[in-house]
Structures are given as structure tokens and as C-alpha cells.
Design a protein that fits this description.
Blueprint lengths: L1 E7 L3 H12 L4 E5 L14 E2 L13 H8 L6 E3 L4 H14 L2 H29 L5 E2 L3 E5 L2 H12 L8 E4 L1 H7 L9 E5 L3 E3 L2 H14 L3 E4 L6 E3 L2 E6 L2 E10 L5 H5 L9 E12 L8 E4 L4 E5 L4 E4 L2 E3 L9 H10 L5 E4 L5 E7 L6 E4 L6 E5 L5 H17 L17
Parallel strand pairs: 1-2, 1-13, 2-10, 4-18, 6-15, 13-22
Antiparallel strand pairs: 3-9, 5-9, 6-8, 7-8, 11-12, 12-13, 14-17, 14-19, 14-20, 15-16, 16-17, 21-22
Helix pairs in contact: 1-7, 1-10, 4-7, 4-10
């Protein structure tokens, strides 16, 4: 088998890269050990998050550090035995979360964030996945008046970004979400983001479009990637695949391949869990709802109401420990009447994160024809299509839609 390009990883990023390369006349084979969107792209909160213009940073004030250090928070938890292995990465994350560096990260990410909904809409229209997408935005709910007022001040401070938002008092919230309880005293309604009722279904729809246009999706072992003269080879079920360009879009597994070529990307994993619930009889959740002062999300999905947890710092491949999910479930029932669990087991996902809070997108510095696209942390689903377009433009020599410099793999030489 031979193609112009092989894309390793069939999550939303890899599928988007494949589609955009194909649209530019390249023959592309998409390789994954499983099927399309069977990992992180399947289990997120389903937001195309246009409003997240400030990256998720590491807390720097002493009260927050103490609170998280006690390991009882819903939104962040760690395995004690794993801390020594990730301490260096966490220190770098803390350093990059200083006000100055956080502003730099926000400025670097803004061009991608600004394009996220637009680039999804292009693929959605082509793939016919519009039935999964709603433009109602999402709701950031608060249990205390103090928390709500702080959130309003923070939203007002984002005026330069031109975001559309509305403060919802209790009555206004009730008009949008009649079944949300009095435990939520008020909210911020972010109107720019889109929400998706089946993110895995969207990724699969994009992949179906890729196949319909002549692309191939095959199973194979990305760890067999090897350089052969000016080409790249990888072992797949049908035999040996050869391509001029190879794209590593393996999310949290990217370093499994890249370390063999001498690259040491500071990639860590923020694990997270979800479970689907039936709503109580006669009850309905219309918007994705963040319980902002507890740190979990309730999202209406086709399967039911998906509760997604915050961050768990643990070994990527350690067995699931869904403590946050078990703790969040009764807390979630305080704000919305979820009923029985619908999944046999909690789902575990792994968010690939870089300490400077920006992804790795671009050419490998020391290997011609090797490209990288991963490390989007909480925004892989959000940024998949715009990442795919940017990388395809770099590979084909077009003028890129945004300046790729902030995401370059060369920053880790």
C-alpha cells in the first residue's frame, strides 16, 4: 500500500487532518488500533468551546493550593504515588500559569479558538452531522451569590474578546431550565459556543465523509512507524503502508511513537470520567450545565444526561478509579433530578496536555515528512477541525490560516 500521507490516530484531530489533506488532493490513509473516535473524542462534554479564551491554568494562590493538596475536590484529584513522576510537569504548568505567561498562552490560543465553530460548521455541513449540533450555548451555574458576582466580574473583564453572554438571575434561569433546582442561584449563559449531543457521532460522521471521498481507514500499530529513505512506513493489517508524509495525531499516546525518534515532548494526561443518566420522569435539561463551584458538567446527550468529571492526575494506563464520578453524582442530584445510571461502567478518557497550555501542531524539527498534531488538553474536540486545516496547509505549502509559530514542535528542541 502507498499513499501521499498516513495519519496515525482516528480521533477528531486525526480525522480532521485526513479530511483537509484529502480536500487538497492528497491520498490519505487513516490508521488506528481501534475504530474512529473510540478514545478521548468520544467521551467529552460535547462543547465547541468558542468562549474559552483563557486556558485552564494551575492555581497559584495559597488557599487553592492547600485545598487541592488535600485531594478532596471534585474538579481535580491525584494519585499520591503518581505525584513524584509528574512533579516536574506540574511545576512547569505552574510556571506557565503566572499572569504574564497565561496572557501569552491566551493570545497564542485565541486565533484557533476564534475559528473553532466556523471550521466545525464547514465539516458538519459537508458530512451531514448538523442534527447533532445546537447553537444554544451553555450555562455556567453558581450556588452562591458571591461566586456568581465574581463570575460576572470575570465575564465583564473579557469584553475585548467580543463574547456574547448574559447574566441569568434565578427567574431568567428558570425560563431556560425549568427543572434546574433552587440550589443554583444564578448563572452566566455563554452564547457563542455550540453544543453537540454525540461528539463521537460527529467524529464518525466526519470519518464517513472521508471514506465516501475515497479515503481509507485501516487498523494498525502506530508504534511500527519507521523512516525508509525519504518515505515513512507503518505496519497495518493489510501489510506495509508507505507514505511521503506521516502525521502523529495520537493524543495521549503520541510520545509512544515520537520517543523512538528522539523527541521528548512534555506531554501529560488529565484523566476524566463520564456516566450517562436518565432524567427523572418528566424532567428535561436543555443546555450543557457546569456546576461551577463544584467542578463537573451535566450535558444532554442522545444517550441521556452525561456527567463528566474534572481532572484526575494518574498514570495514563492505570486502572480506572472513578472517585470523582461517585462523589459528583449525589452533588449533581442537588441541582438537577438525574435518575438511574445507563452505562454498565464509567467511561475513562485521557486528555493530552502540554504545560504551556497550547497544542503541538507542525513539522518535526529533525525528520522531513514527520508532522505532529496533539496536546489540545480540554479542547481537542473544539479544535479538531481548525487543527486539521492548519496542519494540512502547512503540509501542502499553503499560506496557513493562522500563524503556526506558537504551536510548533520546535519549541521543545
Amino acid at each position: 500500500m502507498r499513499s501521499d500521507a498516513v495519519v496515525l490516530g482516528a480521533g477528531i484531530v486525526g480525522v480532521s487532518v485526513a479530511l483537509h489533506l484529502q480536500a487538497r488532493g492528497r491520498s490519505v490513509v487513516l490508521v488506528d488500533r481501534k475504530g474512529v473516535a473510540e478514545e478521548t473524542s468520544h467521551g467529552n462534554a460535547g462543547l465547541i468551546e468558542r468562549a474559552s479564551v483563557i486556558p485552564y491554568s494551575f492555581p497559584r494562590d495559597l488557599p487553592s493550593l492547600i485545598r487541592y493538596g488535600l485531594n478532596g475536590q471534585l474538579d481535580a484529584r491525584y494519585h499520591l504515588g503518581f505525584l513524584p513522576r509528574i512533579a516536574g510537569w506540574l511545576f512547569q504548568y505552574w510556571r506557565h500559569s503566572s499572569p504574564k505567561r497565561l496572557n501569552e498562552a491566551a493570545a497564542a490560543m485565541l486565533p484557533l479558538i476564534e475559528r473553532c465553530v466556523i471550521e466545525h460548521e464547514v465539516l458538519t455541513q459537508q458530512a451531514g452531522t448538523g442534527g447533532f449540533v445546537s447553537r444554544r450555548g451553555w450555562i455556567d451555574g453558581y450556588r452562591t451569590e458571591a461566586g456568581l458576582q465574581a463570575a460576572i466580574r470575570e465575564a465583564e473583564g473579557l469584553g475585548a474578546y467580543g463574547l456574547s453572554w448574559q447574566h441569568l438571575d434565578r427567574a431568567a434561569l428558570k425560563s431556560l431550565e425549568p427543572d434546574v433546582t433552587e440550589a443554583i442561584v444564578g448563572a452566566i449563559h455563554w452564547r457563542d459556543p455550540a453544543s453537540v449531543s454525540d461528539p463521537g457521532g460527529v467524529a464518525k460522521g466526519y470519518a464517513a465523509l472521508f471514506v465516501e471521498r475515497g479515503g481509507r481507514i485501516v487498523k494498525g500499530d502506530a508504534r511500527t512507524l519507521a523512516q525508509s529513505g525519504s518515505d515513512w512506513t507503518v505496519e497495518v493489517e493489510e501489510g506495509l503502508l508507505t507514505a511521503r508524509d506521516a502525521v502523529v495525531a495520537l493524543g495521549p499516546w503520541s510520545n509512544d511513537v515520537l520517543k523512538g525518534f528522539g523527541y521528548r515532548i512534555p506531554l501529560a494526561v488529565k484523566r476524566g470520567y463520564h456516566m450517562h443518566y436518565a432524567p427523572a420522569p418528566g424532567k428535561r435539561l436543555n443546555h450543557t450545565l457546569l456546576d461551577a463551584e463544584r467542578g463537573y458538567v451535566l450535558a444532554p446527550m442522545q444517550r441521556g444526561i452525561r456527567l463528566t468529571t474534572g481532572v484526575e492526575f494518574a498514570d495514563r494506563d492505570a486502572p480506572p478509579t472513578p472517585v470523582q464520578l461517585d462523589r459528583s453524582e449525589p452533588v449533581a442530584r442537588e441541582i438537577f433530578p438525574i435518575a438511574e445510571r445507563l452505562d454498565p461502567e464509567p467511561w475513562l478518557g485521557r486528555r493530552p496536555a502540554i504545560p504551556d497550555m497550547r497544542p503541538v501542531i507542525g513539522a518535526a524539527p529533525r525528520h522531513r515528512g514527520l508532522w505532529m498534531a496533539f496536546g489540545h488538553a480540554h479542547h481537542g474536540f473544539t479544535l479538531g477541525p481548525v487543527t486539521g486545516r492548519l496542519l494540512a496547509e502547512l503540509i501542502t505549502g499553503e499560506d496557513p490560516i493562522v500563524d503556526p509559530t506558537p504551536y510548533s514542535p520546535a519549541r521543545f528542541r
